[in-house]
Amino acid sequence: MLDTGISFMRSLCAGEIEEDVLFPYPTLSDDERETLTAVVDAVDAVLEGRAEDFRSWDVAGEMPSDFIQELREFGLFGLVIPEAHGGMNFGSMAYSRTVQQVARHDASVAVTVGAHSSIGMRGLKLYGTREQQERYYPALASGEMIAAFCLTEAEAGSDAASIKTRADEKDDHFLLNGSKIWVTNGGIADFFTVFAKTGDAEARSKLSALIVTRDMPGVSVGAHEDKMGIRASSTCTVYFEDVKVPKENLLGPRHGGFKVAMNILNNGRSGLAGGCVGGMKTLIALAAKHATERHQFGQPIGSFGLIEQKIGHMVVDCYATESAVGVIAALADRGYDDFSIEAAITKVFASEALWRSADEALQIAGGTGFMREYRYERVVRDCRINRIYEGANEVLRLFIALSALNDVGQRLKDMAGSLRGIFDDPIKGFGVLYEYAKQRATWATGVPVGNPRMSKAHVALRVEAEIFEDTARDLAAMTDRLLRKHGKGIIGKQFATRRLADVMIDLFVLGCVISRVTAAIEANGQDGAAEEIEIAKVFAGQAVGRAKRNFRKIDDNDDELVKHLAESTYERGGYGWDVL
Ligand SMILES: Cc1cc2nc3c(=O)[nH]c(=O)nc-3n(C[C@H](O)[C@H](O)[C@H](O)COP(=O)(O)OP(=O)(O)OC[C@H]3O[C@@H](n4cnc5c(N)ncnc54)[C@H](O)[C@@H]3O)c2cc1C
Predict the structure, then answer these.
(1) Which end of the chain is more exposed for a tag (fewer CB within 10 A), N or C?
(2) How far is the CA of 155 from the centre of ligand 1 (A)?
(3) Could you give the residue numbers annotated as active site?
């Protein structure tokens, strides 16, 4: 029986490895696999051989409407909508895999399809009433209505709670006024999930989500943005001027819109990260082809160690990302209550792994990579956005680390509460004290008494599992140490929280890799899974190396010097040491 109330990472920061969340590595049912295979093949059939189109749409900065019609006819807008309403009813695993396949061909197409299902109509799926779903699902499934997510404003990006768009309650409707910038699908959408203030202007938290449709008087759309990447996908400002939104279009709880927005983004992350995996697979194929075909110094460049190192790391990055995406998608499908930290980790890791891969693939291609005739430079431009939207990676790192610190802080507070009552209830009090002292002694000395254990990893991965266990123990100690050192002030210590987040990112992804490789060994034997074991070894080595550096830097760092340099640069308005 699954305990869907557990969060793997929250538990890990408190020193517990909840293995059942990661093991066994999730797989699709036979039925789901069969349907997915057919869809993946069909995606290839629709998008294969269109490379020239994708290139010219990137140059033009627009996707032709007859191609969007093809996407509609193919059913790509109905992926997550129930079959009864004309969709394919894909869960997150199958959905993410489909976005991956689209992204292998073109990022702009993947973003168009993904923004619809991952965020545009996700609120309707998560929070819609039966009546709202019955009203909109059929048109959204057929793509007659394309969906968009409207949160960001000119003055409210990462600080989404500071939006100014207002929805004032009048009789039977909300009167909506404001504008949203950089809305993906803005120019082609008919269904908008809009976030607006419904409380006092000063009350940051009182937002509500509303369903707004293009046909409502007062809705208008600005020009198509001229972007660096994903140029063919539509990005526009959407204006709302005295739009009367019927009260029955309230999505989720009144004043509960901030949570609705965060949950939508959280649930949509397997789509974005799945797209990153697709991008990486394409880059690996392109880079491997170039590395074996291009000769210099009388040899294929792929025979040089420095090129092999890049390709090998691209493969490890891709496998690691895919492993994490599989886990978070399954957590969503199994109905886990809270996988927000794991989903944020996967978004950060995926977007950065794709960025590394794009950069390295272009480097392998040399000057060819710089020419617009080839795909490399477009992939570099296209993939840059993933680190910015749907939660900028800096802000997600803060979320990852501070959520864990908050939980551990709460536990320590509860424990301190129990300790205060030690003389009232000595038995309970001593029990708590003993447990905590034992745990702290373990963290401090590294003696594996009560060390967290990853017992479900295959024995062939014992070294990697031990790396996980030891790093998990050190992570718990790091969390405890940071809280003791900074107390509540940790919120302002971003250099430190970044290190904690980075260790958490590496650990979660390593856990996912170990689980997946364990499943591969169980299915194919150690020989059959030999390369996957190699991947696990390389990733574990990378992860522990980074983690050790981060642990060392808790106390021994140059944070204050770096901070001072930034502050003096702000004051001066730039660099201060021109030679001339
Ligand atoms: C192509 C494109 C498509 C988009 N699609 C949509 C969409 O469909 N719907 C939608 O609502 N929005 C969309 N956005 C907006 C996107 O989500 C925002 O750009 C993003 O949330 C970041 O906000 P910002 O650009 O205002 O950056 P800012 O919030 O100003 O951040 C700037 C920098 O400061 C960092 N930063 C901010 N706060 C902190 C902090 N507390 N600590 C440390 N660092 C911090 C950020 O990480 C970032 O590096 C899109 C943007 C683009 C470019």
Answers:
(1) C
(2) 10
(3) 390
